[in-house]
Amino acid sequence: MSDLEFFFDPVCPWAWITSRWVDEVRKQRNYDVTWRFISLRMINEEIGYGEGSEPWRTAHAAGSRVLRAAAYARAKEGNAAVDALYTAVGTALHNNQQREGFLDNTTFFLVDVLSRAGLDTDWANGADNEDFDAVLREETDLAFSRTGKGVGTPILTFKAGQPNEGSFFGPVIAKIPRGAEALKLWDAVETLATTSGMAELKRSLRSAPTFD
Predict the structure, then answer these.
(1) CA–CA gap between residue 38 and residue 73 (Å, rounded)
(2) Hey, is 15 helix, strand or coil?
(3) Residues 49-71: pLDDT tens digits?
(4) Helix H segments across the chain?
(5) CB of 187 within 8 A of CB of 28?
(6) Alpha carbon of 205 to those of 13, 24, 173, 208, 212: distances in Å?
(7) Degrees (nearest 5) of the Cα angle 157, 158, 164?
(8) Is 165 buried (19+), middle (13-18) or exposed (0-12) by CB count in 10 A?
(9) Which pLDDT does position 23 carry in this prediction?
(10) How buried is residue 85: exposed, middle or buried, by Cβ count under 10 Å (0-12/13-18/19+)?
(11) Other CB atoms closer than 10 Å to residue 201's CB: what's the count?
(12) pTM exceeds 0.90, yes or no
């Protein structure tokens, strides 16, 4: 049983920033994080892509291919493999802005990223295996069962399986809190998530994402 379950789609820059905040807290407090999947492609195919949304459709399809590879990595080597794959892909895609290669040939992108990170390049073969879509669907549905629909990624579940389990979409943050600020935000969000009756806290204004 982990301290946190983190549902992500690798294409989402906001999920990436939140994941690096989670990693910052994990290093300081030695929390256990389980990495799980939520597919933006499946979410948006269900509600329908609108006119002019082809770039999003392409990006979400590429994200699902990475999630398949992550599901394959988890089947072979467990949760730590998903962590390592997401870290390598997120760094390349968001910090290093290698978006063109990601969209043009996702499998080649994965092989290159995994090789540079010293990880098993065989994981990239999962990207072409549609059998893993069942896993993506199952975990996307699980995430929504905890928050309700109408949200995106990331979704965080604190204290999964415990009496005070709580889930939220977000937090959506524009930059990665470090040090004491990371812990301060964690304690606040965990308190809100695990407080009985707490449903929603939201504002629509956002700054541009910063990945430093």
Answers:
(1) 16
(2) helix
(3) 677 778 878 889 999 999 999 99
(4) 13-29, 40-47, 54-77, 79-90, 99-104, 106-116, 133-147, 179-193
(5) no
(6) 16, 25, 11, 10, 21
(7) 115
(8) middle
(9) 96
(10) buried
(11) 10
(12) yes
For tokens 């995106």, what's the residue?
152
Q: Which residues pair with 155 in a beta bridge?
A: 7, 169
At position 124, the amino acid (one-letter code) is: A
As given in the structure block, the two tokens for residue 106 are: 């996702």
CB 65 within 8 A of CB 107: yes
Tell me the C-alpha distance between 174 and 197, whole Å.
27
Q: Which residues of the chain have pLDDT under 70?
A: 1, 48-49
pLDDT confidence of residue 54: 83
The predicted pLDDT at position 199 comes to 75
- Residue type at 22? V
As given in the structure block, the two tokens for residue 156 are 């965080």
Q: Note the pLDDT of residue 49.
A: 63
For 139, residues 6+ apart whose C-beta sits below 8 A from its C-beta are 7, 36, 37, 38
- Cα–Cα distance between 123 and 190 in angstroms, integer? 33
pLDDT, residue 207, reads: 77
Calpha distance 19→1 (Å, rounded):
19
CA distance 16 to 154: 8
Q: Which residues are within 8 A (CB) of 142 and not within 5 positions of it... i.e. 6 or more apart?
A: 36
**Cα–Cα nearest to 5, from 189, 203, 167:** 167
What is the identity of the amino acid at 74?
R
Closest of 165, 131, 162 to residue 146, by C-alpha:
165
